[in-house]
Design goal:
This protein is of the alpha+beta class. It is built from 1 helix and 2 strands. It has a two-stranded antiparallel ribbon with strand order 1-2. The radius of gyration is 13 Å and the shape is globular.
Length: 59
């Protein structure tokens, strides 16, 4: 992950900060891909709900 400037666990919540919206979008895309791939491998399908905000436009 390029330009990760913050990685801070708060109890069970993992918080990460990125230098640009593009870097955030790339990181989220990789994370979502891994999570969905695992779910599909285990169950054969995955349900997804996406919210739309400025920070997710790159994704």
């Amino acid at each position: 992950m390029r330009n990760l400037f913050l990685k801070l666990p708060i109890e069970q919540l993992k918080v990460s900060g990125y230098s640009t919206n593009k870097e955030l979008g790339i990181a989220i895309a990789h994370s979502a891909s891994a999570i969905l791939g695992k779910a599909i491998a285990e169950k054969g399908y995955a349900n997804v709900i996406l919210a739309a905000t400025d920070s997710q436009m790159t994704f």
